[in-house]
Structure formats: C-alpha cells, structure tokens
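Posting this for the archive.
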Amino acid sequence: MIRTITKIPIGICIDLETTIAGKIPNHIRPPGQKRFETRIIEIGAVHWSNTDNRFMRLVNPISAKLDSGQQLISHLESIYQKPKATLNFWSKVLVRRKSVNRSMFQKEESPNVWLARNLEYRANDFVRWFNGAHGPKFVTEQQALSDLFDWTGSHCWLAHNGNSFDFKVLQGCALRSQMSQPNIKTYDTLHLFRKHLPGHKSYSQPILYENIFSEKYNAHVAIDDAIALAKLCKYCNEQSIGKWMTPTVKKIKKANISKVSMDLSFVAKKISAVKKVEPKVPMNLTFATKKHRQKKLQTPQKLQDLEGVGPKTEAQFRRQNIKTVEQLFERYKKGGRPWLCTLLPFGTSSNTIEKSILNIKKNTRLPTGGI
C-alpha cells in the first residue's frame, strides 16, 4: 500500500486557558460532554501561515452577581470548580501575559507581590474588576465564543490535544451559552506530530518545542501557546515531505504496477519525485560541440517545465506576477523557502520545486548572484 504524503492543514492554531474543574455529578453533565463544566478564562488563536493575524480574549466565566472574594470562592465551588487551583492559575495567567499593573489592585503594588498574596485577597480584586473597577479587559464566555466564530470564518481549527480538551471545552461553552456552533473542521496536532515527527520521547507541546528549536516560550499563556503551535506546524509541514519522500519512492519502484489498480495521474501529482521510466536507447558516444552546448543552456523553459510544477502551481505563481523561470528565480532569492512554502497549493512538493529552482542557475544562463 502506498503511503500518502500529507501536510499539516492550513488553518487556525487555537489554545485555551481554563478553570480547574472538580468532580461533577453525572446528571449535570450532558451525555458525551466530558469537559462541559470547564470554564474558559482566556482564548488565544493565530493563523499559522500568517502569525500576524491573531485573536486574543480574556474571559470572565462568572455570571453571578458577587460582592466579595469569599462569595467568588463559594460560587466557584457551586459550579464544580476547584477554587484554590482555579484562582491561583487565573492569577498567574494575568501576570504572565502582563494584563495587570500596580494601579489595578486594592493596594498599589507590583503584580508579583500581588501574586504572592493569599487566595481571598486576590479573589476580592477579581470581584472588584467584575463590578467595574479599573482592571483587565474581560468579556463574557458567550461574547468571546461569538467573536471567535466570526474571526474563524471558513478556516479549520488546530489544537494540541484538542480532541481531549480544547474542542470539548469550546463545545461545552457553546451548549451552556445556547449557541449553535458552526461546522468547523478540527485537527488534533498531538496526533499529527506523532505521525509526521516520529522519534520524540515526549509530545507535550512545550517539551517538543524546546527539543526542536532549542528554546523555551511563555507556556500557559493562550496566545503564546498558539504562536508556538503555529511555529511547530510550519516546521512539521516542511519536514514531513522530505522524511516520507524516499521510502515512498522506493515502494512505488518495487511495486508491480500491472497487479495494482491505481490512478497514475494521482500518483504523479502526490509524488512528483517519481521519475518516468524511459525506454532504453543506444548510448550516444558523440560529444557535443561547444556551440551546441551553449545553445542548450540558452534554451528558455516554461514554468510547467520545472519538475513538480503543475497547472495549479503555475496559476499560483502567475497570481504573484511570476510568469517566467527567471522571475521565479529572482523571487526565490529574496524570499527563500519560507516564501515558497506559504505560496504553494496544498499537496504540492515544496522540496521538489525548490530543487528545480536551485537547478535553474546551474542549467540556464540567468543573472549571476548567490541565493
């Protein structure tokens, strides 16, 4: 069986920070809604092909009218949350993402000093903010979810461990808010990375990120988690084709094509590195003259003459006002592989096309200069 080479789908990397849920009675939770009781405190999302396009919301999951920190603690218990774990994590999120400053607290002080104060003291500040005092910009769960749906549009969602957590939390929020969730396609990057980036001991997002890029990021801040996931998606998208190409080509060469029913045009599009078998011809031992070789080098090429470039890819180049091989070569010199990967249609082999571009300088008389 031929392994199909796939890329990470282009869409929206999303991450949630939430309350810490306690035990919930079975009659409270709807059937199949594992995360129904978990409340959202922050949403961060980013288009992974363009990380400048971002979505951020701080969320207030408390809908009741409260007058004190002790009432907030009691309310969290009544909605099946763990008050201490929830308020400690919630406070850390606000300080890490720099959403609070010294003027927002009951007593003017550093956010780190406020973070070290006792639970009820900090709970009082949350209640003050919810009642209109100067503080972080919170929106309701319903407003945050509605904004996210509008911002998402027709794109898919990608989340790390999303099938077990993020997607279920969003679904539970929609049910509580009595909102109908659009038909959004979802992908769990935990499964995608295990498939396309094999060999890692841990696929925890912060650990995987550090292993690959040799650096850490501000984990457990939703927008920073989403940006880190986008960077991992780009890396995986570039690596997966190169890693699977060689064994795939070997399998096709060894296969008895006469015994396998397959669409050869489909194979050609998915695996452009497979070379066509040419009939054997007698070896030509005559050496080309210098004049003949020079003429061959000067022979112009069309975009579709390049290996890996089909009609869709050529159309994509033309939309960028790239109509000749020389123009493609010049644009690649400026943007390099990142520019090429974001431009190519889904399913196109960036490795093959990049190799063709790099061979342009060797095989044609284009302007000299380093890439």
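The mean pLDDT is 81. The first helix runs from residue 69 to 78.
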